[in-house]
Write the structure tokens for this entry.
Amino acid sequence: MKKIFTFISLILLNCCHATAEQEQRFVNPLFYKTMEPVSTMAWRTKITPTSLVSDNKGTVLEQKCTLAENTMDTVTLDCEGAYEKEKRTLYRIVSQKRDSDGIFIVIYFKSPIEEEYISQDTFFIYDNP
């Protein structure tokens, strides 16, 4: 009987955990699309409510994140450091102007102790044909 109770408890805990992760969704589905860099210094980027993945010529960096802001125009992610996991980076992803092929996105980033976002990269999200 004790084994059955333990088994059922584990199933319920796993279901609750999965449901909590599923509840985090971007208000604007645009942010789920791959962001192509405008400059050669930035890397192609894809975000979810719990991660930021950047890739460049076979090198992939994946950071675990927490969703800090979630509006139609802006998403802010609080992420572990790309190279040093104990360091944190705040990414503020903001939709900008639209053109005929898609929309420009600016990603501002800073450490949590900095007052202002002083660094940024520009990206483009293509509309599906």
Remarks:
- The CA atoms of residues 1 and 7 lie 10 Å apart.
- The first helix runs from residue 2 to 23.
